[in-house]
Amino acid sequence: MTSMPHWLSKQSFLQPERHAVEFMDGSFLTFRDLETRSKRMAGALAHEGIKEKDHVAVLSVNHPSFIEVVFGLSYLGARAVLLNIRLTPEELSYQVKDAEVETFIYGPEQAEKVAGLGNENLTFLSFRDLEGEYQTPELKETIELDEVFTLMYTSGTTGNPKAVLHTYGNHWFSAVSSALNLGFDREDKWLLNLPLFHVSGFSTLMKSVVYGMTIEFHDHFDAKAVVESIRQRGITMVSGVSVMLGKLVKALEGKELPSSFRCFLLGGGPATETLLKQANEAGIPVFQTYGMTETTSQIVTLSPQDAVRKLGSAGKALATASVHIDADEGETGEIMVEGPMVSEGYYNRERPTTRFFATGDMGRFDEEGFLYVVGRKKEMIISGGENVYPAEIENVLVQVDGVQEAAVVGVDDEKWGEVPAAFVTGEGIDRQHVKNACLRLLARFKHPAYIYHITELPRNASNKVMKHLLIERMKEGKYDEIE
């Protein structure tokens, strides 16, 4: 077991007056402030009976108290179970029970939802209940890298969600690997507007205390606010998904960003060539990534100079990680990953015994070793004996004029067994343009047999597309095909 000084305490000692967290209203917390407030929070949590290795649920939007609670728990050696605010009371109840939570901490905006949980075995505490001064207990001033720090639930698109165990070591090596890939500058400032309960948002918070880097704290994504932060307050790094990148490009209104802005870390799937070119013209360096909750955020990243040349690729594995394809060379197979940022497994589930973690995603390497993710293993379509991966078709569809988003599923077919059916959102979509793109970029057996235009894709609380609902609604005749 490897130990090191508590990250927040160390930054408070090394650079007490440096800004740890800045807010849009101009206020800020130094590393000394954040340490003091987090230790005071640890006293409040201990007063409520929370102790080492307890599982404590946290349900809140991005809020300063969220940060203090998380670090307060770390000073006690307790574990934070981070819950998605978009979940229903029934879904939350399942996760709270599954994670064996005893104390439930929530932001004031979640009071109505919390009232619907009705679990008499839980102690409920709002952020307001934790205000005031309390005696400071004995705190953990060292971090054991093998100890579990957080539990985050998977989206549950293929079954019940599972709690991913993240150790301090997972978070540490995720931050270090990111720095080795993206580089690090003492003047870097990362804008945090992704939810803290998601691994992408939480990993930014961890980077702050590992690097001693300032983060600017936003409670949600607003493209105009992001542009202002980059231009007026020196933001150099932003994380987001393609939809956010598109809104950021639009908000710039043809004007470039300053050269000090050096990274838009893009997750959630590849961007279109059109969007990447627009971002490049606007001075937005886009680093496309592949990662998941189980890999504590990114594990593969594509640099901006390769973004168009390797369109659709997630890039290459980070310095401390390895990626393997479970197939013959050049063939498509399941993506297997290894590295110190990869979770040891799930809470109350059997731990993996193999060297590599099986992601459930299918992918392939090109001749230069760049990874291409082609879809989920369980979503693979077998049409006339040929394997068809939905993501490969989706990546083509989103390049068609007018298409904003696309999802592809397999539907039963008497002749071929299964055929692809496509669902697209957007305006002014021409079926012939879709067919032309498929003819140019896809083998015939991959062409969608059906193309439906819908208002929006159905998503779950983790923003993942619920493809089974697309099939159900299609069968019920709720969608119209594009003529």
UniProtKB/TrEMBL annotation:
Organism: Salimicrobium flavidum
Matching PANTHER family: ACYL-COA SYNTHETASE, MEDIUM-CHAIN ACYL-COA LIGASE ACSF2, MITOCHONDRIAL
UniProt keyword Hydrolase present: no
Domain AMP-dependent synthetase/ligase intervals: 14-347
Family note: Belongs to the ATP-dependent AMP-binding enzyme family. MenE subfamily.
Record keywords, A-Z: ATP-binding, Ligase, Menaquinone biosynthesis, Nucleotide-binding
This protein's name: 2-succinylbenzoate--CoA ligase
Residue span(s) of domain AMP-binding enzyme C-terminal: 392-464
GO molecular function: ATP binding; medium-chain fatty acid-CoA ligase activity; o-succinylbenzoate-CoA ligase activity
Reactions that this protein is recorded to catalyse: 2-succinylbenzoate + ATP + CoA = 2-succinylbenzoyl-CoA + AMP + diphosphate
